[in-house]
């Protein structure tokens, strides 16, 4: 990831970071065009920024996140993420593998694999050695305070612990961008705070770009910038 450019303004050195996400006039509809999910979205997100996307159910925030992660394709417009034009190709598996870490509300862990094995999954189709996969997964699980649960199945963990496993899995491929869709939505307030603080700590420590979808004010306001959506449009974008 680029560290951006340094400019001198009024005698002070200021780091000018580049855009890692650039979206212009993006549209997406479903049900043969009867449901408009995204209606002319324009958005820029800089490297290392922590952005929350907020709005009521059906506002288009999760659809937008799926576009950024190349889980779905827009109908029209432009979207470039980490230098990749997501309107030009059909197969983005390598892009997702190398650039994106996903954290979902329901964590999506495989129940018959251990915690340690679940975290290794994004590395299976890479050139990372088995030894490095094992070591990297264990190190990340230690960093989220689950080093003593490596051989447990997800069904033996609490909701908060499963979400911490999902965060470790999202980081194992050293992504440039973490996309988190309602990561605290299925948790009680205490555990939600723990997960939010963990994501914030990872963002600051690893300098990754973090894009988080939420419908909760306190979660959204933990970001550097809050983007509010309504009816498929961005209605405002404010510094938190």
Account of the protein in words:
The model has no long low-confidence stretch (mean pLDDT 87). The protein has a domain at 49-59 and 90-239: 3-Layer(aba) Sandwich (Rossmann fold), CATH 3.40.50. The strands form three sheets. Strands 8-9-10-5-11-12 form a six-stranded mixed sheet, with helices on both faces. The chain contains seven helices and twelve strands. With 240 residues, it is an alpha/beta fold. It has helices at 61-68, 93-99, 115-120, 130-143, 159-171, 189-206, 217-220; strands at 5-9, 12-16, 19-30, 35-46, 50-54, 76-81, 84-85, 100-104, 177-181, 209-214, 225-230, 233-239. Helix 4 (130-143) crosses helix 5 (159-171) and helix 5 runs parallel beside helix 6 (189-206). A hairpin with a 4-residue loop joins strand 3 and strand 4. The protein starts with a strand and ends with a strand. 29% of the residues lie in helices and 32% in strands.
Question: Terminal Cα separation, in Å?
Answer: 25 Å
- Helix fraction? 25-40%
CATH-defined architecture of the domain at 49-59 and 90-239: 3-Layer(aba) Sandwich
Instruction: Round the mean pLDDT to the nearest integer and report it.
Output: 87
Order of helices and strands: EEEEEHEEHEHHHEHEHEE
- The SS-based structural class is alpha/beta
Shape: globular
Which strand-content bin applies to the residues? 25-35%
Write the CATH fold name of the domain at 49-59 and 90-239.
Answer: Rossmann fold
Main sheet overview: 6 strands, mixed
Write the layout of secondary structure elements.
Layout: E1 5-9, E2 12-16, E3 19-30, E4 35-46, E5 50-54, H1 61-68, E6 76-81, E7 84-85, H2 93-99, E8 100-104, H3 115-120, H4 130-143, H5 159-171, E9 177-181, H6 189-206, E10 209-214, H7 217-220, E11 225-230, E12 233-239
Parallel strand pairs: 5-10, 5-11, 8-9, 9-10
Antiparallel strand pairs: 1-2, 3-4, 3-6, 6-7, 11-12
Helix pairs in contact: 4-5, 5-6
């Amino acid at each position: 990831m680029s560290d951006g450019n340094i400019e001198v303004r009024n005698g002070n050195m200021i780091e000018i970071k580049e855009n890692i996400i650039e979206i212009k006039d993006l549209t997406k509809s479903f049900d043969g065009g009867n449901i408009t999910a995204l209606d002319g979205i324009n958005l820029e997100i800089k490297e290392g920024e922590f952005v929350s996307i907020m709005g009521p159910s059906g506002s288009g925030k999760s659809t937008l996140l799926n576009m950024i992660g190349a889980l779905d394709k827009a109908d029209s417009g432009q979207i470039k993420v980490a230098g990749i034009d997501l309107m030009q190709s059909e197969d983005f598996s390598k892009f997702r593998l190398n650039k994106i870490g996903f954290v979902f509300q329901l964590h999506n862990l495989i129940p018959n694999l251990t915690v340690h094995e679940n975290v290794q999954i994004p590395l299976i189709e890479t050139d990372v050695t088995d030894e490095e996969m094992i070591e990297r997964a264990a190190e990340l699980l230690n960093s989220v305070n689950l080093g003593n649960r490596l051989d447990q199945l997800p069904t033996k963990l609490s909701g908060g612990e499963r979400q911490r496993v999902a965060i470790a899995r999202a980081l194992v491929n050293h992504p440039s961008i973490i996309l988190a869709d309602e990561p605290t939505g299925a948790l009680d307030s205490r555990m939600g705070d723990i997960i939010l603080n963990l994501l914030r700590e990872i963002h600051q420590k690893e300098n990754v770009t973090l894009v988080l979808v939420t419908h909760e004010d306190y979660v959204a306001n933990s970001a550097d910038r809050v983007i509010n959506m309504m009816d498929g449009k961005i209605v405002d974008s404010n510094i938190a």
